[in-house]
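Hi support team,

I'm filing this because I wasn't sure whether my run with iron/sulfur cluster finished correctly. The job status page said complete, but I'd like someone to confirm that the output block is well-formed before I use it downstream. Pasting the exact inputs I used:
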Amino acid sequence: MAVAVDTEIPTRQLGVGEFHPFEAGGQRFAYMVPSAAVFAFDDCSAAIVDLVRARPHTPQELLDALAGRFTPEAIRDAVNELYRVRAIGEAAAPAPAPKIIPLRQMPIQTLVVNVTNQCNLSCEYCYEYGEDKIVDTENGSQPKFMSAETARAAVDLALAESAPGKTAHITFFGGETLMNFKVLRATVGYAREAAAAQGKDVDFSLTTNATLLQPDVIDFLADERIGVTISIDGPQDIQDRFRVFSNGQGSYEMAAPKIKALLARHKTRPIGARVTLTKQTLDVKRIYKHLFEDMGFWEVGFAPVTTAPQRGHALEAGPGYDQLLGQFRALAAEFLEASLQNRHHGFSNVRETLQEIHMGHAKAYPCGAGVGLLGVATDGQVSLCHRFAGSEQHRFGSVTEGIDRGKQAQFLEQHHIAHKTDCAQCWARPICGGGCYHEAHTRYGSTERPNLHYCEWIRGWTHTCLEIYGELAVKNPGFLRQFDGDDHEASERH
Ligand code: SF4
Ligand code: SF4
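And here is everything the job wrote out:
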């Protein structure tokens, strides 16, 4: 018996839409690329997709082909649903290009304030000091330390530009932030009062290498509920490979006891470690074990060094990224095992990607930079993000003049993912967004270029995280509820 399908569905040939298939927990899923949604196939919808993938079918042909296996109603419902989520569509229609939707003027969620461009360490790979630096902070005209006045103006800007009634987020960055602790402390006090007077709230975080964590600093961070991320690369031999003082001496011995004191005292916020991975220090499991189990960090995030390819510490395109992916997958398997049992696991790269998948935003940009996040240099210049602080080319105004919204709009128009030809064809684009602007600038000399050197790695890692997401959705869906309505952190990626 022929059953009419939904009248909105064309009676012409149906082909497959744009999605990335994956399997997890004994079930088949699709990651819907245009909408960034995860769709679980039941047996009937899986059978329809298989048929349509082999060759285009009309709805009636689908009904005829599957008549013995499923009821006509089930087939009709599945076709309707697959068409609605765009897993299938008109075979003759060209795949829609990513749309450019002009952004409304966005509130600034996060201002990253570089309170100093100086550091007491001399890590060879650092983008601030190494051969890849964008701004000459040693010999340039910028002050080495932000003044209290400039920092207050940055707070005023953050409060003025944050959404009404919402929390303004200020992240202190450097250089080594604690080298300007006096200004940092005064700024927190000022911001709390200014925010209260405006009926707002302000949230603080900072990144530090931990070597200057004195007891009074630790008390302050704990009492003021400042979120802390420690830049540390792992156990002593790994940390001391690159994270050294200017005389070449490693920093582990000085940092480790201070980190332990911080972790013992600062219980008001979870403390995270941020690891820079180089070709010479690629040992993800060992690093994680040391930082999470031995030292007691709540979470550990890993980032491959951002650098020009000819540098000795750069991961090799191809084999280096394959090795990284293998190591990430091994640690991600541990994350999954723990999460299925509702045990905390601190591999934050997985958690952040799961959060992004769960939120289901198809990214037009790789991160919040230039959208809801801006950086401030020590002289008060506002820039694309903290890594571009002080770069005239990437300037978006200043803390006293305000944000140059025209320049921001032009930047966002030029950098939309629809303009990145390779990305427009890539299934991972809702999560990747073309990759970090700083990395693109360092590698290719332009923030407009997609980071094509690491696409296989990004796609491989996204696939792994989709599998983990699917497995959790099938076996422990309650775990994913922690991500409901949580969309701040994912806008920041450094
Ligand atoms: S940079 Fe590569 S992985 Fe990222 S969206 Fe573009 S093509 Fe895909
Ligand atoms: S991902 Fe890159 S461009 Fe974006 S905020 Fe981080 S460093 Fe800046």
